[in-house]
Amino acid sequence: GDQGVVGYITICIQPQPGYWKVKRVGHISGIMVRKADRGEGIGTQLLQRARSYFEQSGVQYFTVYTTVGNTVGIDFYRSHGLRPLHTHLLGEI
Q1: Strand stretches in the chain, DSSP E
Q2: What is the model's pTM?
């Protein structure tokens, strides 16, 4: 039957400032898979498709943004070879 949307990924390719050695970087702003469908490899397929798109577009590096509390997501990304690059800190006024 029709299950509707079980997952999605949002990506873009962003040009970097001229003084950067790497001129274009891919960005993944999130991968979401419906809880009932997790563990079926959907997230892995979405990530693989994003990587293929970046590669076909001549992009060598990509980033993923997620919260530090998203331990399941961080474990998923680490299992696919990603590693921490920056830490953003949030202040409140």
Answers
A1: 7-15, 24-33, 62-64
A2: 0.84
Residue in this structure with the two tokens 């960005």, named with its chain if needed: 27
Q: How distant is the alpha carbon of residue 4 from its chain centre?
A: 22
* Close Cβ partners of 33 (under 8 Å, ≥ 6 residues apart): 6, 7, 42, 43, 46
Query: Which one-letter DSSP state was computed for residue 17?
Result: P
Token couple for 51: 């990587």
Q: Are 53 and 11 in contact (CB under 8 A)?
A: yes
φ/ψ of residue 51, rounded to 5: -60, -40
pLDDT tens, residue by residue, 29-76: 989 999 999 999 999 999 999 999 999 999 999 999 888 899 999 999
